[in-house]
Specification:
The protein is globular and about 40 Å long. The strands form 2 sheets. A 7-stranded antiparallel sheet has the order 3-2-4-1-10-9-11. The chain has a 6-stranded antiparallel sheet with strand order 5-6-7-8-12-13, covered by helices on one side. Helix content is 17%, strand content 35%. By secondary structure, the protein is α+β, with helices and mostly antiparallel strands. Catalyzes the hydrolysis of the gamma-glutamyl amide bond of hercynyl-gamma-L-glutamyl-L-cysteine sulfoxide to produce hercynylcysteine sulfoxide, a step in the biosynthesis pathway of ergothioneine. This is Gamma-glutamyl-hercynylcysteine sulfoxide hydrolase.
Length: 227
């Protein structure tokens, strides 16, 4: 399993979203509070954001997040109105390599998968960044388009009843997410919206998204619909 977080709103630093919160991804990499499967997320991490020209930029590693002093030094200087980051707990048998860590990208979107899926139900795609299930799933989602995210997740879930398919995606001006087998929470405020596998602090305004739902965030508008 994995933990992930995304932000859309006024510019914030990557550190504010990933490293600074008392229960942020840094802490979730070794002590998640709501993770249903696995105890730690020490098999890699990745952080992505969109620059002023709307181009997605990524920093990924196969090491634990808590051990990267260079990222801790640079993250406060990386600011964006749209950020997506994740820490990874590798599925047994899957390789541990930087390209296996989210966020994955097609050059327009950043995408993270919290869960697992049988690769046998996924069509092979030469554009997958890694052989891990999450990368192959991301390639399928990119190929079909993010506007079809709900349909794609539903179809894959029907093919693999044991799949867990929590997806989080961003394109610089929009966030999309699905809940399918694991947790997702949302925090809305005057400056923007956070979507996260679990709350990164104890703010009472966090709300939980029900299972098997699609979340679509555009500017200050949020739509939550059943899958």
């Amino acid at each position: 399993m994995c933990r992930h977080v995304a932000w859309l709103g006024v510019p914030r630093s990557v550190a504010e979203l990933v490293l600074d919160p008392p229960q942020g991804l840094l802490v979730q990499s070794y002590a998640p509070r709501r993770q249903k499967h696995g105890l730690m997320n020490a098999d890699g991490w990745g952080a992505g954001f969109f620059d002023d020209d709307g181009v997605p930029r990524r920093w990924r590693s196969d090491k634990p997040l808590w051990g990267d002093a260079s990222f801790a030094s640079v993250a406060p200087a990386l600011r964006s109105r749209c950020v997506l980051a994740a820490v990874r707990s590798a599925t047994i048998g899957m390789p541990i390599e930087p390209s296996a860590s989210a966020p994955f990208s097609d050059g327009r979107w950043l995408l993270s998968h919290n869960g697992l899926v049988d690769r046998a139900v996924l069509p092979l795609d030469g554009h997958a960044e890694s052989t891990v299930d999450s990368a192959v799933l991301a390639a399928l989602i990119f190929a079909r388009g993010l506007d079809a995210l709900g349909d794609t997740v539903t179809e894959v879930g029907e093919r693999d009843p044991n799949a867990r398919l929590n997806i989080l995606a961003a394109n610089g001006c929009r966030l999309l997410a699905t809940t399918w087998g694991d947790t997702l929470s949302m925090l809305r405020g005057p400056e923007g919206v956070v979507l996260a596998s679990e709350p990164y602090d104890d703010d009472p305004d966090w709300s939980d998204i029900p299972d098997r739902h699609l979340v679509d965030v555009r500017e200050s508008h949020v739509e939550v619909t059943p899958l």
